[in-house]
Write a structure and sequence with these properties.
Shape: globular
Strand order of the largest sheet: 8-7-6-9-10-11-12
Structural class: alpha/beta
CATH topology of the largest domain: Rossmann fold
CATH class of the largest domain: Alpha Beta
Number of domains: 2
Radius of gyration: 21 Å
Length: 323
């Protein structure tokens, strides 16, 4: 009998990697096709022919792609997001769509905090000043004692909250699901999103992408923020209206922002965002640590192994397929 075949599209995995060895020891055949951000529907359909499971990057699993993948039983993302998967189509086919919750929570939280500190202290300008031969001191602001607004109190949001308490910050949270015990233990307050935006000196986004929160941060909500406030996004690019943010930054209606994620990735070379001097940008790198990658890739591989053995996935985002 032929071995079940697993497609691996996560770019940092390669033949001979421990994850590859782990899958092969489980009796699976591995096929590598790294995701580079430009795969078409037709290319996805071709890549998935004869494939039973995927250790997946941010590949586009549209309804048409899923319908054509006749043998596919599981898509296991090496990350927390699954917005590139048509969940309705996957669920109709009883394909388990899995994520690796918590695997990169430390890495993403640390990067969000790094970006906040860089914005507050104008780190990029100060660090480049001496290198380019100058000695001008770009004046920043203290983080200690300021108000931090966290949009989304999942695993990453909680990590940020716990760490930023060390800066004696007042912490406000907006999330449709409240955790009163965590709030009491860590001295945070749940408030409506509009209040959070009006009162925060720093706003950091840690929400899942969905149709409901697409452009959650739009022109009207950006207008609520203080002109001295900073916005950080390490979740998903579509949560912010990119054009509205560009205008707010260009017109200095907020002090600055830091983005690790964008509505279109990779960010186009001619994007007007690249022109702004009050915007820090990184290439969707928040979860890119060796520790986070190892944890998430092994978790994804384990999900694929479980499903292809006929077992139930532990982290399926569509558990209704088992009903």
């Amino acid at each position: 009998m032929a071995k079940p075949r697993v497609l691996i599209t996560t770019y940092y995995l390669h033949p001979g990697h421990p994850v590859d060895q782990h899958l092969q020891k489980a009796g699976l055949e591995t096929v590598f096709s790294p995701w580079k951000g430009d795969r078409t529907e037709d290319a996805m359909i071709e890549a998935l022919q004869g494939i039973d499971g995927v250790v997946a990057s941010s590949d586009p699993y549209t309804a048409r792609v899923i319908e054509a993948a006749e043998r596919l039983k599981v898509i296991a993302r090496t990350g927390a997001g699954y917005d590139t998967v048509d969940m309705k189509a996957a669920t109709a086919r009883k394909i388990a769509v899995c994520t690796t919750p918590g695997a990169n929570r430390h890495a993403v939280a640390e990067w969000a905090i790094t970006l906040m500190l860089m914005l507050a202290r104008k780190a990029q300008a100060n660090l480049s000043e001496v290198q380019k031969g100058g000695w001008f001191r770009h004046e920043g602001m203290d983080v200690t004692g300021k108000t931090l607004g966290i949009i989304g109190m999942g695993a990453i949001g909680r990590e940020v909250a716990q760490r930023m308490r060390a800066f004696e910050m007042r912490i406000l949270v907006s999330d449709p699901v409240e955790n009163p015990q965590f709030a009491e233990e860590h001295g945070i307050s749940y408030v409506p999103l509009e209040q959070l935006l009006r009162e925060s000196d720093f706003v950091t986004i840690h929400s899942f992408m969905s149709a409901k929160n697409r452009h959650l941060i739009n022109a009207e909500r950006l207008a609520l923020m203080k002109p001295t406030a900073y916005l950080v996004n390490t979740s998903r690019g579509g949560i912010i209206d990119g054009e509205a943010l560009y205008r707010a930054l260009k017109e200095k209606r907020i002090a600055g922002a830091a983005l690790d994620v964008f509505e279109q990735e990779p960010l186009p070379a001619d994007s007007p965002l690249r022109e702004l001097d009050n915007l820090l940008m990184s290439p969707h790198a928040a979860g890119s640590t060796s520790d986070a990658r190892e944890a998430s890739s092994f978790m994804a591989a384990e999900e694929v192994i479980r499903v292809l053995r006929g077992e139930r996935a532990l982290y399926a985002m569509n558990p209704e397929i088992y009903q």
